[in-house]
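Q: Got a minute? One more chain.
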Amino acid sequence: TAYAEEAQVKFFSIDTATFEMSEEPFAQVKSGKEGNFEVKGISPESPYAVVEVSGKIAVDAKNPYARKSPFDSPDNSLGWTTYRNVVDLRETKDVKVNILTTLAASRTVGLAKSGITFAEAKVQAEKDVLLALGIRDSLAAFDEVSYSQKLSSVFPVFIMASYLFS
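A: Always. Here it is, folded:
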């Protein structure tokens, strides 16, 4: 997981007609010890949502290959960061939020506003992010990669983006 304990997780609705994000979250939780979070019993008006996670990034999430040092900060974190993902709640039950989903989030919404379907917008936004990074290959979806999933085809891009944009 990317986040240290107690990251703030907010869910914002996206209007199905205008694809504008609500100003107030429809759900909020804090992450647990492993950085995971769970939301139950919500019925948002829209199937589309922005999931926003804000908190301290754990050192081993920034560079999962790094060795622990005696000079690491006592709380084992680097600094405050906010990551996002745009999801279709009808399709997504296990939401992953990372640097790649953050880079694609606003592009997804912009493409959906232009008239293509949400699913097409999400796929195209990920392709656009990869092209911007100079990658022309087709890789796994951004929200399928996790910090512990080093075998994913998109994991090297994930690490590169973490260094470039964190």
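A: Helices lie at 59-62, 99-113, 118-132, 155-165.
Q: Perfect, thanks.
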